[in-house]
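INTERNAL AUDIT FORM
Audit reference: QA-55
Scope: verify that the stored structure record matches its stored sequence.
Auditor: D.O.
Record contents follow.
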Amino acid sequence: MKNPILYALRCCALLSFLFSFLLNAQTKNVASSKNNKNIQNPADIYVAGNYIIQGQFFGPAYTKNGERTPLTKTEYGLAYAIQVVGDDVYVAGDIKEKAVYWKNGQAHYLTCSEPTSTATCIIVVGNDVYVGGTGSKNGDNVYPRYWKNGQEIVLPRHIFSGMEANTYVNSIAVVDNDVYVIGTAVYEPVYWKNGQKVNAINNDLQRVVVIKELNGDVYAIGAKDKRAAYWKNGQTKVLSSEESMATAIAIDGDNVYVAGVLGEYFSKNMYPGYGNSGTGYLWKNGVQQKLENDVYPFSIAVSAGDVYITGMDQNYASYRLLKNGQRIESAVDPMYVVSAGKGKITKPSMASSNSNKKEKIERSVSPITEKALTDSEEANLFFEENKNKPGVVTTASGLQYEILKQGTGPKVLLSDKIQAIHKKTLMFGKEIKEQGGYGFPTIYEVRNLMPGLIEGLTLMNLGSTYRIYIPAKLISADAIKKGATIIFETEILGILK
């Protein structure tokens, strides 16, 4: 009888959201002379990420059991994902804004029809290597794509409010000879099957974050009725009674480990924990455990009963590696963890781009005239109130900023090209119009940015995280008319000379 989940996915015309890999499980049994029992060696733990080269910029690397292997020692780039198949280690990322994957340290550049590109996920099936990623024109007009054995397949972009939106690829899967690519655009999930955009998701989960095949079973991980859940072969298990979402899964023997986040859904597509407030959690066989520092989980792996999670610390916009729920040091900025051996892993989306968050709020009233304030007046009132908050600094131009983390590296200059990640909020008056969570690190030429962001960035050092409040006059003339304010939480990851 055909696997019921595969049948369901065909009926839906979609295999859903995956940042997971089909891992090779290697086990080694050792005979014990004392008790004559078989003992299974612990799995090796691999972490893909980035390290600082010459104190100036990030380069791609991975670690095996904590020991770092650089993938380049002189060129800037990033490593996003890793898969281990037998003795072969595959890593996806980029070098100098060109998509690349490495096999055992050997770089394979991927031809792209756009001038800049990156590879964000990878899966190996038999002799075929599938890599998902994007191409763009200097970070703008982002187009999704994947490569099969180096051949580029460009995917259609998502349509939002009647217009094409920047669309990002987060995961790729191959099930029953069909290729499924999963991405995001303005916080909405986007799915493609064999190169064609499709709309349907798993029938039982309203939002699917991960699809994973393991030991002949196919798992879907995400949310049912806004509650964290996973689906296996037609059966759904809801993990929480609170609003939440599952983001990663690992299976170790009979144990099921699911990582995710608890928090409110502010709208249909504003899911918790990534751009919204949320608290990271781990469920082992349904039993809930809080993660340290509100980490939003990206991936999970298990070795000898120890649970490893990579994710984003939402308080400081920094990547974290957790072991059994507590932060541990890593020789790379940890993006993704896998185990080769007994442990299993998966990775969800690093959702990128903006999301509409339209809130109904009461308009402020002038205490003098008792008339409703305009958006521009409300924006001015926001800055007047905000400047009195502890830690907020106001510059001569009217820009405001808070130091969330002070870096010790070189200061950003107007002439620099930088590598950074942002969390962005756009307001008209006091009404939030758009809000976007931390996405993939992006490269910018400082001189080409809006005036307020240029001023804010040039206050920062490498390694810093600032919250920057930009008034309309430092954005654009159109922003002044609309009473716009933009708030960035920005971390400087690299300065590229």
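Auditor finding: record pair retrieved intact. The two ends are 59 Å apart (CA to CA).
Action required: none
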